[in-house]
Amino acid sequence: MTPHPATPSATPTSASATDVFTRSLDLLIAKDIDGWVGLWAPDGVFEFPFALPGAPHRLVGRDAVREYMADYPDHIDLRSFEDLTVHRTEDPGTIVVELRGIGRAVATGRPFDMPYIQVVTVHEGRITRFRDYWNGALVADAFDGEIPVGAARSGEAR
Predict the structure, then answer these.
(1) What pTM value is reported for the model?
(2) What does the H/E/C string look like for the chain?
(3) With bands split at pLDDT 50, 70 and 90, how would you rate the model's confidence at 141?
(4) What is the C-alpha separation between 82 and 96, in angstroms, rounded?
């Protein structure tokens, strides 16, 4: 995998929603959070419709996304994404994605297999809206009942 700069210019403005999303998966596997955040529009919105109690339901802006994801690799060791299916919508900038994240909880070493449905909107090569439908209860055992990423932090809207 070729390293990419963490700057917003790392993604061409002509990149499709599928291209940007695929790139985001590569960056998460590489634990390149700066690069992943670099895919976001400055005012991008990250939503968690099924957020766990105490976790944010909505983040607004690249800086809030960066703060939320900053310590992700310290807690979650993603190894792969499986069963990836991309559904196109009537809006060419929006895709609906089904996938499974496979990895382990860093603190316990226990494996997890998390199904996701994500709705991603990209404009001019940047993520402008990302709705992440996941159920933390499905992987709570891997984390001894408490998923460490996603705790409420400053700068987040609910």
Answers:
(1) 0.83
(2) CCCCCCCHHHCCCCCCHHHHHHHHHHHHHCCCHHHHHCCEEEEEEEECCCCCCCCCCEEECHHHHHHHHCCHHHHEEEEEEEEEEEEECCCCCEEEEEEEEEEEECCCCCEEEEEEEEEEEEECCEEEEEEEECCHHHCHHHHCCCCCCCCCCCCCEC
(3) confident
(4) 15
How many residues belong to the chain?
158
4, pLDDT greater than 50: no
Query: Is the confidence at residue 73, as pLDDT, over 60?
Result: yes
Dmax (CA) of the chain: 43
pLDDT in tens, 78-132: 999 999 999 999 999 999 999 999 999 888 898 989 899 999 999 999 999 999 9
Distance CA(8)–CA(54), nearest Å, equals 30
Bridging pattern class, strands 111-123 and 126-133: antiparallel
Q: Which two tokens stand for residue 56?
A: 């944010």
